[in-house]
Amino acid sequence: MREKLLKYMTNFTTLSEEQQQEISEGILIEEYKKGTHLIRQGDDPTIKCYFVLQGCVRQYTIDESGKEVTANFYTEEQAILTFTFQDLSQSSKYALTCLEDSIMVVGDFDTEKEMYNQYSELETMTRQMMEIYLGQAQNEFTAFISSTPEERYKSIMSKRPDLVTRVPQHQLASYLGITPESLSRIKKRMNQDKRRV
């Protein structure tokens, strides 16, 4: 798994191989079983953040009626940023649960600061990753609110087709903002359209 992390780091930094190796060895990598809750809605603030090397993590909220609403799925080479540490009086507004056995880099605010002091370029790398992440999130949100449910599903099939087989269909439907029945109809219609071509 550390090799995977080193390969990813190479895309964002000009740190020497030796420096990358040192950073990699100083980073905590944890394994989590399917069903593990990284954060529960209502938990105390956390200073942890995660980077998925292998597996799938679901972010969701439970609304006042008790219904689960899926906000995101994080898979390989995606960062899971937790912002609750910025306001220590606020509890977590969402939950993070492993949908698969997962392996992740686990960071915390204090360790991050120490590493930035030791490797100044690491801060630049992290900022670049954040800029890419926030840009993608903004683009996805804009596309989501301006598209139909069928367009949202087509986008998933185009950009993240693995989600269709990796996550339960009712959770995928929730992520798309539709009911499981609507998702079934969309899939059926798209399959019929394929056969006609």
From TrEMBL:
CDD domains: CAP_ED. Keywords: Activator. SUPFAM superfamilies: cAMP-binding domain-like. Residues 11-43 form the Cyclic nucleotide-binding domain. Pfam families: cNMP_binding (PF00027). PROSITE patterns: CNMP_BINDING_3 (PS50042). This is Cyclic nucleotide-binding protein.
